[in-house]
Structure formats: structure tokens, C-alpha cells
Predict the structure.
Amino acid sequence: MDLCSIVSHYAAEINWWWFAAATIVSFAIGGVWYSLLFSKAWIRVFKVEMEGVTTASVVRTMLFQLLTTMFLGAVFFVLTNISVWIAILTLVGICGWEKGKLNFQFSRRKDFLMAVVIEVGHTFVVGMVFILFALL
């Protein structure tokens, strides 16, 4: 059996209602995460410039984020159907890669640690939402 057949088999077993629910919950978590919980820290640490931001650019960004969230979620749904442990190990690997990517972007340790909490923390929480929903 080749890889495409294996993925197709497990993708066919996805409960699309739970997938849709996980996508909505994950997207909502992102909204709360980057607005209520960490907006000021995120803007400060990543030096985000809000000048010149238009409604159209925000809508495009949010649609792109929704699509990438769905893609990531689909990966976790398939992996969870194969093995919960493979899904969790993959999530840990993605979080480790993301942390490594942040390593050389910050000269101040405090900013680096906050960036890890914000970015890696969000990825981990969203990944776990998809894994947990895939188990339902």
C-alpha cells in the first residue's frame, strides 16, 4: 500500500462535522489569543506596524489564516486516525521547529521567550484542539 492510499483511507474516516467544529474553535482561539490575551505583547515583540492596515488586507489575511488552519487541522485529523501518538509527536516536532525558527530573530532573551509563548503556544493549543476533536 502506498502513502497516497494510506492517507486516502484515513481521510475517508474523518468526521467532517467534528473537523468543522475544531476549525471554528481553533479560529476563535486564535482571535482571543492574538487580541485579548497577547495583542500588546505580540505588537511589541514582533514590532507590528498597524498603520496603513486596511479592512481588505485584514479580510485577506484572515481568509488565508482560515485556510491554513483548515489544512493543519486536516493533517492532524488524518494523523490522529492513524495514531494519536504520531499526531502528538508531529505537533511537538512542529512546535520545536517553530521555536527553532524564532531562535535568531531576537537579541533580547525576554522578547524571545515571549515570542515562543505567543507563537509556539498558539500552535500547540490549536494542534491539541484538532487532535482532541479528531478523537470524538
In short: Helices lie at 3-12, 16-37, 39-45, 55-82, 84-102, 109-134. The chain has one domain: 3-134. The two ends are 27 Å apart (CA to CA). The chain has a mean pLDDT of 93.
